[in-house]
Amino acid sequence: MNRIKRSSIALCLLFGILNVSRAYAGSTVKISTGDTAWVLISTALVLFMVPGLAFFYSGMVKGKNALSSMMHSMVAIGLVGMQWMIVGYTLVFGSEGGFIGNLSHIFLKGIDDNSVFGSIPTFVYVWFQGAFAILTPALISGAIAERMKFSAYCVFILLWSLFVYDPVAHWVWGGGWLQKMGALDFAGGTVVHLASGCSALAIIKVLGNRIGFPRDYFLPHNLSLTLLGGAILWFGWFGFNAGSALGANGLAGLALCTTLVASAAAASSWMFMEWYFLRKPSGLGYISGAVAGLVAITPAAGFVSPFWALVIGLAAGVLCYYGVRIKFKFRFDDSLDVVGIHGLGGAFGAVLTGLFASVGAKGLILGNYLQVWYQIVGVVVVGLYSFVITHFLAKIVNVAIPMRVDADTEMNGLDRELHGESVYHLFETSKM
Questions:
Q1: Whole-number Å distance between alpha carbons of 407 and 144
Q2: What pLDDT digit, counting tens, does each position of 74-117 carry?
Q3: 45 pLDDT band (50/70/90 cuts)?
Q4: Looking at residue 407, what is its pLDDT?
Q5: Are 375 and 349 a contacting pair, CB within 8 Å?
Q6: Spatial distance between the Cα atoms of 184 and 379, rounded to a whole number of angstroms
Q7: Which of 7-11, 40-44, 422-426 has the lowest mean pLDDT?
Q8: For residue range 406-418, what is the model confidence (pLDDT) as tens digits?
Q9: Stretch 270-286: mean pLDDT, rounded?
Q10: Are 190 and 168 within 8 A, CB to CB?
Q11: Residues above pLDDT 70, as percent of the chain
Q12: Span 313-335, mean pLDDT?
């Protein structure tokens, strides 16, 4: 009897082993727990950049518009998050080639808990990319601060995500024509920063300048918030860039290294520019320089060595220092310097990627002059497309919902007039 029992157990074990072997033999990919954990953390870091951006921007506006500015960033999580789940992801990654993806993954159809992208679950990849889609339109809000209706802004970012972000992301990351041509963008220099910067310039042209610009000074009301927000952005950017390696690997380590080196260099070079010309280095200038370096290294983070990251960062701090002053020369009211930092910094970093790429790709320093050409084509096409389509969308929205608040609302502050509340109640007397 014992012999029969032992034989039965042995047969069960044998069949179990055979079934497991068949299961592994039939599977072409395995999920890496390490890679999955890192990309999950990176997704959270990128999403954490949204409240960081809210603090960063709100500290630079007047106190009566602080809440309005924060809402411009935070509302993107809700609206663009839904847009990404419903149609955004499939338009970017639904197919390879051409101008836009198909609708094969509308409402994330065809993706379940067993779906795998590379070495991570597809759901993790969907929302890592979704965090980028959420953050990008929020960047534009810095250019239109203190004068745009919230209702018009909500409609605008939904349309912008659909007609600007989704096609551009498909071209560069979704197997579209720029990616097939060979243009490089590791983590969003063109898709995120150049597109948002050029779009910011377009919507400014439709919206107009704030009352008093450029005659009056628009001083930040709370630099503590701005420095805190900038620090959160700096922290989250390591998920932004190193997470784009899509694995806990050496490439992620390189991207983290180049991100830190470039941002440190740009913060320092901007600070020294202020020290030399203005005799006083400012906190706002220092954190603006750090953001400029982060923007410039984003397209190159996984393609260049630490030495070239240092060069990119030092140059970006100087270039964007002058870039934010362009608005005074040409008299366009880029409230919080989106064009000068994100637009100019993103274009600059994308072109320098073509010069200095030496990891996983060859740039001009290794004799591949065509890579510079590919980068320039990507910058010109993405910049022009973003500007033209955004200008058209802004015109349409402005007809349906006049975008500009009236003069009284602008003077009284958007917080009270549009949201019925305020960030600050310290000096208000309550009515019984």
A1: 15
A2: 999 999 999 999 999 999 999 987 899 999 999 999 999 999 99
A3: very high
A4: 97
A5: no
A6: 11
A7: 7-11
A8: 999 999 999 999 9
A9: 97
A10: yes
A11: 92
A12: 96
Q: Which residues of 285-311 are buried (b: 16+ CB within 10 A; e: fewer)?
A: bbbbbbbbbbbbbbbbbbbbbeebbbb
Mapping DSSP onto H, E and C, the string for the chain reads CHHHHHHHHHHHHHHHHHHHHHHHHHCCCCCCHHHHHHHHHHHHHHHHHHHHHHHHHHCCCCHHHHHHHHHHHHHHHHHHHHHHHHHHHHHHHCCCCCCCCCCCCHHHCCCCCCCEECCEEHHHHHHHHHHHHHHHHHHHHHHCCCCECHHHHHHHHHHHHHHHHHHHHHHHHCCCHHHHHCCCCCCCHHHHHHHHHHHHHHHHHHHCCCCCCCCCCCCCCCHHHHHHHHHHHHHHHHHHHHHHHCCCCHHHHHHHHHHHHHHHHHHHHHHHHHHHHCCCCCHHHHHHHHHHHHHHHCCCCCCCCHHHHHHHHHHHHHHHHHHCCHHHHHCCCCCCCHHHHHHHHHHHHHHHHHHHCCCCCCCHHHCCHHHHHHHHHHHHHHHHHHHHHHHHHHHHHHHHCCCECCHHHHHHCHHHHHHCCCCCCCCCCCCC
Superfamily of domain 30-419: Ammonium transporter AmtB like domains (1.10.3430.10)
Measured between its terminal Cα atoms, the distance across the chain in Å is 88
In one letter, which amino acid is 170? H
Closest by CA position to 296, among listed 200, 223, 155, 189? 189
Mean pLDDT, rounded, for 5-9: 49
Report whether 299 contacts 190 (CB < 8 A). yes
Phi, psi of 117 (to 5 degrees): -120, 110
Neighbour tally for 82: CB within 10 Å? 12
Model confidence at 3: pLDDT above 70 = no
